[in-house]
Amino acid sequence: MNPRQRYELRLLAEYASFDIANVAKDFSVSERSVRYDIEGLQDELRLIGEDPTALSVRQGIVSVRDSGSRWELLRLSGLKDSEFGSRPVSAQGRVLLLVCDLCWSEEYVTIKLLSEKYSVSRNTVMRDMAKVRAYCANFNINISSYRGKGVIAQASEANFRRCLSKAIRDYAALDSGLSLDTGDYSQWFQTKDLVVIKDIVREAEERSLLYLDDVSFEAIIIHIALALERYRANPFSTISVTDDAMPEESIAHRMAVWIVSKINEKFDIHLPNSEVDFIGLHIGVRSSEALAQATKPNAAVEFACLSLITAVGRSSCLNLSHDSRLFDSLLQHINAAIYRQRAGIVLENPLKRDLISEYHSLFTIIRDVVRESELAELIDTSEDELSYILLHFAVAMKRSAELSPIKPNIVVVCATGLGTAQLLATNITRYFDANIVATLPRHQLYGSELLPGVDLIVSTVPLQVSIPWIEVSPLLRQDDIDRVSVRLGELGLGGVRVALGEESNAAQEVMKIIQGHSAPGDEEGLYAALRCFLEKSQKIVQKGSYMLSELIEGHMMLDVECSDWEEAVRASGLPLVSSGEISDAYIEAVISNVKETGPYVVITKHIALPHATNKIGVNHTSMSFIRLKTPVCFGNEANDPVKYLFMLATLDSSSHLLALQSLAELLSESEFISLLGNAQSGKEILDLSLIHI
Known about the structure:
Blueprint (H helix, E strand, L loop, with lengths): L2 H13 L1 E3 H8 L3 H17 L7 E4 L2 E4 L2 H11 L3 H4 L6 H14 L6 H7 L4 H16 L4 E5 L3 E5 L2 H17 L17 H18 L5 H20 L17 H17 L5 H13 L2 H7 L4 H17 L8 H20 L8 H7 L1 H12 L11 H21 L5 E5 L4 H14 L3 E6 L1 H4 L10 E4 L9 E3 L6 H13 L14 H12 L6 H15 L10 H5 L3 E5 L4 H14 L5 H14 L4 E3 L2 E2 L13 E11 L9 E8 L7 H10 L3 H9 L3 H9 L3
Parallel strand pairs: 6-7, 6-8, 8-9, 10-13, 12-14
Antiparallel strand pairs: 1-3, 2-3, 4-5, 11-12, 13-14
């Protein structure tokens, strides 16, 4: 008697009948298979001398004749109490269980054995195996079939662990969600083991002051439980993550060392040192804070984040380029996402459906931008990962909305005539960011339908109204401006621009320049004067930061002839070597890094940003630009060949970001890209970058 038949007997004992279609759906089998079950039960009844007609099938409903027969069937079936509460496994759940069976076993498993275990036909298991193979392929696990032997999973221990961890958590989440209820994992791990492991990880969090979110906490617990069970099954199995291990000085590695020592102590075992690397890796890639401490600045990743912010801002009609908090949090997350992709670890987002539903348009923009950018080669572009990126932008937009002042709705009232009212309205919009709802004479104000939407009435005559109002001079003198500003503040409204006579020195100077070159035909003089002003003030735009124009000035070469990418990188560094900004050692470090890690410096189509993550040979933060006469290939299929190179050298982690932000924004403009290809001199490029702040 197979487990499905026992389940059918339970239904008959409890309810006296069941619907064949429902049971077939529960077990993901055909209705014919369930009918065969009933025939088999009737045959067993006949063999033991019982009346097979106790079971009847009519119009798709299986019934048992009477209550005595119901309990006799149960007794004769030998159904135990523990089996009485068994539940059917869904098709999705069965696939996950098959994944676990194959990844846990180091031996061949026959299709016949699997079909009997899950009470389904061999054809059903064969169909399931296509989904099993697809699931395992995400973890570089190969499922091979051999005639006469069965199927076997082949992969490294690290990949088996990653796959098992994900499958176990996915299976538990089918019913309970991500809760880490120890009962959800009882078929794989002992409940008492999970309790001990949870206590150890909680203590590790307290000791290191690094706290994981619930999803990450659950994942770490399962990883550790797997390590324990795999060690018990084979103490000599080893796992290696040397290429991806967190640095020994990192907080994630220190946490892992302490956790493994406690696991060894509590369970009286001796996990190998490689388990420290494996557990530390998973702590690191699931904690942006931990990873930030172990990750060196990378200008290519910084550029990718700035480009993403620029593109999303433009598509959503918002200026997010100066939100440093968005950049910092996004950079931290993208670094972690790159590390996760390299390590083959998937980050689950239990809120993804809610986030995508609430911010559907924004999610679509982010998805399209990421998948069409260089980030598509660096990070996982699944909905889980993209919805986390969405969260960073949603928070930034909410923050921007909270910081943006509310425009007050103002009605202007003047008894001396419509022309005077319009003059007053013009002066108000000059000094305040406000909506002028209407300009009215006093006699039209009373009973006006406009009043319910009005925040403030600015009038040249006394009023008797319930809405806040203030009396001013028709010409709006400085003291009037001050009083309106105070009144708006009292009402909790923004809208203040700059009061007369209180413009900044820079604003006053710009106004003088414009007034001095306002004559028709003097555009060239205006541009030249503004350019001169920007050149004088560029060094104080942002303390401790460099503008793009400031860095590349004097470091540009056009139509350089190079035979390959190495020669191009060396050529891009020559202007900086000549000026003493860097030495040849830095150029060699860039070339060495590209050879070791790939063409990470190719940041977008036809453009490379040669840089190294170390400071060897860097004397000053600097940047150069060269245009190649003949493009060269770096090995980046999506963005080759490269025609333009901006070499970047930095002494710290922040002084170059303003220049990099400007470059990201400029490279998103077709006018600038066209200029890079058509400029006759470096000055043309410098001029356009100069006016871009």
